[in-house]
Design a protein that fits this description.
Elements: H1 3-20, E1 37-38, H2 46-65, E2 71-82, E3 92-98, E4 104-110, E5 124-132, E6 139-141, E7 155-158, E8 161-163
Parallel strand pairs: 4-6
Antiparallel strand pairs: 1-8, 2-3, 2-5, 3-4, 5-6, 5-7, 7-8
Length: 164
Amino acid sequence: MTRQIRALIGIVAAAAVAWFGYSAQNSEPSATPAAPVSVSDDTAGIQATRDKYSEAAEQIVSAFESQRSDMWIEGGGRVQRVLADDSEGSRHQRFIVSLANEHTILIAHNIDLAQRVPLKAGDEVSFYGEYEWNDRGGVIHWTHHNPRNRREGGWIQHKGTTYR
């Protein structure tokens, strides 16, 4: 088994363990590995963005129903709950996002490689990352830059700032 496959299995297993053991507590911010990138406010594209995220929500539901994984997707939704960090292995900020179609997914954002996103329940976020199936709705991970440039990196956008 290659090192990349073992790493992916470890990430998916950690996310699954974290998903099943989550608590409703918010955790305090810790180290800041990378500075966020500001993006301009694009009010003209709001409707197009909503349409794109509705389509992404349907793609995620389709992947969930067919138990498909390894799907890179850009989507967005409303933060439903901020969970305690997963601190086993690489540290991950975890939160549940409700998509346009009310399907919920776990976002596992590696805060050893990217800065913590200062969000709370009710905030709107968009993301680009890899969807992995689980029986609770799925997990989006790889929402950070790739430090080795061996694969595509992802991001999270919140209030005009991109975290990668």
